[in-house]
Amino acid sequence: MKNLFVLPLALALSVGCSTQRASENTDNRQAAAPQEPAAPADNRTEEQRRAEQQESAKSAGEKIGEKAREAEIRTRDERQQIKEGAAEAAEKIKKGAKVAAEDIKAAAAGAKEGWNRTAEGGAINVNTASQADLEAAGLSKAEAQSVIQHRPYRAKEDLKSVLTANGYEKISARAVVK
Fold it and tell me: Does residue 166 sit within a domain?
């Protein structure tokens, strides 16, 4: 029975020694590990730290404000340049539109004149012919102006009341009334 009592006692002592050795090993490892250098002592007060943080924030805010002002100035200048460019472009478009309108009117007048002329012998519509066309047909400047002033005509014979007999003979072969 003596052996039965000794065995648990020996086991308990062996466990106790192992636990003690394990804790000693842990203490030795912690002592052997390099320790971080202690932070330098901060002798500033909490109020001084807050003041420094506020000053830093103020400085950062001023820098942001300066950049924002610079961006606003650039934006304002760019908007002004765009407005000026748009005004110049609008002026060019107006001039181009005027020229195009004049060209269209001239083309329409030419088409109308060509429509009014026939292919056979170059007939002249006395209601739409220009002074130059009437003069080219043989009328004098005064006769051409008189024909234009007394428009419209219903028949080419109406020209007899406006022109001399000689003037009527010059134009009657080519004159048409439309």
Answer: yes
